[in-house]
């Protein structure tokens, strides 16, 4: 395990800029516990085994696996088979030559991190489903994005984007990310219905998100922030752990965000009692 953080950057980490922190590539962590059954070493071997003409860095592979995991989690909300053609179109794209390896790494992460098993249904039809591989634990409920509503996983992803970007993010950047997961602002979604309405109206009305217009933007753009209900129903630490699990990292890899989340946890706990109450 990593040593106790001292709320400052460590060697190999992105410098604290007070804004967003880039998702690291998993390297520079020689003392990190490999609790995902060799996922990190597998991605390293995959990077080394790729032909020179198709060479990708380990960071690119880690991000692609994380993107694939998020896509599978979102698509599974409808509880219908996830087609391989959709995975290739929305996520894999230029990585088709190593699709089997990426799928294997994503399956490992889904199993060891989220407690899901990726199962192929009717191999000739190239369709997959996720089934529960572990008994759900109450503490893990929010991090798995599976609390009984199909929109919770999407909301956790958006809250993670906002937090990692420094507490606010332009709406256009949110849609740029969601398009990679097959969620478009102008297309009806099989799970979420009207995603634009869900995010910019429903989540805002429910006070999970706040939307503010960005001055001097043409066309008009808005920025999204956490709403008061998000602060009540979840926490910065829970969202950071969700992001970390998706990317197969320790939350401490993002020192600025981790220290902020830790301070938030302490403030939620309240001041410790100064002493015992007097007895009569």
TrEMBL record:
InterPro entries: MAGE (IPR037445), MAGE_WH1 (IPR041898), MAGE_WH2 (IPR041899), MHD_dom (IPR002190). GO terms for cellular component: nucleus. Gene3D superfamilies: MAGE homology domain, winged helix WH1 motif (1.10.10.1200), MAGE homology domain, winged helix WH2 motif (1.10.10.1210). It holds the Pfam family MAGE. Signal peptide: none annotated. Residues 61-261 form the MAGE domain. Residues 36-51 have a biased composition (Polar residues). Residues 1-53 are annotated as: Disordered. GO terms for biological process: negative regulation of transcription by RNA polymerase II. PANTHER family: MAGE-G2 (PTHR11736:SF91), MELANOMA-ASSOCIATED ANTIGEN MAGE ANTIGEN (PTHR11736). This is Non-structural maintenance of chromosomes element 3 homolog. The lineage of its organism: Eukaryota, Metazoa, Chordata, Craniata, Vertebrata.
């Amino acid at each position: 395990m990593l040593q106790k953080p001292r709320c400052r950057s460590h060697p190999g980490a992105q410098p604290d800029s007070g804004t967003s922190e880039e998702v690291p590539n998993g390297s520079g962590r020689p003392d990190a516990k490999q609790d995902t059954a060799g996922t990190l070493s597998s991605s390293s071997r995959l990077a080394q085994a790729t032909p020179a003409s198709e060479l990708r860095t380990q960071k690119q592979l880690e991000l692609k696996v994380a993107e694939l995991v998020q896509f599978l989690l979102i698509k599974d909300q409808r509880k219908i088979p996830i087609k391989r053609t959709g995975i290739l179109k929305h996520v894999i794209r230029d990585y088709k030559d190593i699709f089997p390896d990426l799928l294997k790494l994503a399956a490992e992460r889904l199993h060891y991190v989220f407690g899901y098993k990726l199962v192929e249904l009717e191999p000739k039809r190239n369709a997959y489903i996720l089934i529960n591989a572990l008994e759900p634990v109450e503490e893990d409920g929010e991090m798995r994005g599976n609390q009984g509503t199909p929109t919770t996983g999407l909301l956790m992803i958006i809250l993670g984007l906002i937090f990692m970007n420094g507490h606010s993010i332009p709406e256009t950047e949110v849609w740029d990310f969601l398009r990679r997961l097959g969620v478009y602002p102008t297309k009806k979604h099989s799970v979420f219905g009207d995603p634009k309405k869900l995010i910019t109206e429903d989540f805002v009305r429910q006070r999970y998100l706040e939307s503010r217009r960005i001055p001097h933007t043409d066309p008009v753009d808005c920025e999204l922030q956490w709403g008061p209900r998000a602060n009540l129903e979840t926490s910065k630490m829970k969202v950071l752990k969700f992001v970390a699990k998706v990317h197969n990292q320790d939350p401490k890899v993002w020192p600025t965000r981790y220290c902020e989340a830790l301070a938030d946890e302490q403030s939620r706990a309240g001041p410790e009692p100064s002493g015992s109450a007097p007895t009569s």
